[in-house]
Amino acid sequence: MIEVKNITKKYGDFTAVDNISFEVKDGEIVGLLGPNGAGKSTTMNMITGFIEMTEGEIKVNGYDISKKTKKAKKQIGYMPEGVPSYHELTAKEFIKYMAELKAVDRKVRKEEVNKVIEETGLGEVQNKLIKNLSRGYKQRVSMAGALVGNPDVLILDEPTVGLDPKQILEIRNLIKELGKKHTVILSSHILSEVSQICERVIIINKGKLVAIDTPENLEEKSQNKNVLYVTVEDKNGKMESIKEKIENIKELKLVKDNEDGTKQYKIISDVENDLRKALFDILPKEEITIFELKKEEVSLEDAFMKLIEDEKENNKQNTEEVEDKINEKNVKTNSTVKTKKKENTDKKQKNKETKKENSNKKQNQGQVKEKKGEEK
To answer: What is the pLDDT of residue 230?
Structure first.
């Protein structure tokens, strides 16, 4: 089990990861999703102990990565992005070397290396130099290096990046098999891949946690309308008036005229209104023949984009609110300053008038004394 609590990573004034928390249960395959620069690799590097966090706590099978680093690292097999390996070694030599680095017991080391070679499908190329292998096989070698020593947790950073479709399918199937025996965290920006492999998805954007859920739930939550595509034969041209017959239709739009004389329409309703029953009931009564009716599926890509856009909008609103408060404070401050300035000006003016009055009084008193003196 992996426990991540309030982790933050700062580089000077820049915050790469901002107060993220999540858990990964034993035996789960979890996808870490986010656009480039979201903080995925930084998060993985902190979980593996490769870089230190600025704040927070990470435990791997109960071992704190900061306090019991060796024991925590022993639980993890890490495949970094970019397939780092020694090209002058053969695939088997590299896996042996990784087994030595991980201090796999000498008595079982040979058996462990052979088992990993078999699991990752490297039998045919185990004695070839890594530099002469295809990109797909290099990925397998890197994965074998992570897998040797039988760690409970596998962390795979962009495991299918740069592969062709056939190689992606092979690595995807391999990860599914590994997920039967290990807890797996993988990062990717290929959303279709994550939806097919992972049981849960963690979405990060600009270092912040955006969502944690199953791919299915994320897809469902992002759906804000029902969209149906219906292909019909409409000899009497009644389809355009169907909106009057079915009150919950918000929009009915012709998509295309087909060569066989049929037409495809797009029908939109609120998310809570499924119009398929109503269409099957009413269209035949209007002498409209249904050739095809299908519901538009919401993909993980749609859910991802909606969450990222919502996050941007929230950040924009928060920024505007902060700016409004600052402006309001500045207005109040300026008003206070102006009031104080006016008070000071009025005070100075009053002091001047008082001094003038006092001066006049003294002058008058002097004149009175002079007159009294003359009279005497």
So the answer is: 93
